[in-house]
Amino acid sequence: MFRVNPMNFVNRKQVRRRVSQLRRDNPDLTNRELCDLIIKQKCLKCAAAGTVTALPAAVPGLGTVLALLGGTFLDISAISYFMSEMILEMAVVYERDPSMSRVSKEAVWVFASAVGSNKFGRNISQASMRTMNNQVMVKMLQDIFRSLGIRATQRSVVRIIPLLGAGICGGVNYLVCRKVGRMAADYYESNQEHKWKGVTIDV
Description:
Layout: H1 12-25, H2 31-54, H3 62-68, H4 70-93, H5 101-114, H6 119-123, H7 126-129, H8 134-154, H9 156-159, H10 164-190
Helix pairs in contact: 1-4, 2-4, 2-10, 4-5, 4-8, 4-10, 5-8, 5-10
């Protein structure tokens, strides 16, 4: 169903620019503390996406249908994008080059593990993860979106409750993004670039 890498939609130059600006604005913060700021920023964006996409339910009838169907799709798309941005920004904080394909692959692997789609994460070593082929990538991406879709479906009933549903969806998005962000930050903190730089090659 999903044949694209969500990381491909993230502008690498803007990612670098945002991280550089973050460092300039907060020169005394550690890498992990910078990641905490990034997580907070993306959590707020994910929360806004959940709230806005559930707001049509305030209009009975057509609004309810839009919130349930179109809103769910837009919600998953938005939070996938914001969390992809978040993970790539963390990669840059830890001195990865986001233009390199292995960094994108690593980011997808981190994303899959963090959202609970870890059947691949447990079976793919760190070295083989950086050289996995497109077929494996597609399967991993499908697993990511399936997990996010399940989460969105689980709260679809809540989504159609006028106004209250919008607040709940925003809150759930915030918590999901925070969990993914913290797990991703833990990974990058434990697997810093200098520990494996130059060991693997892109195939």
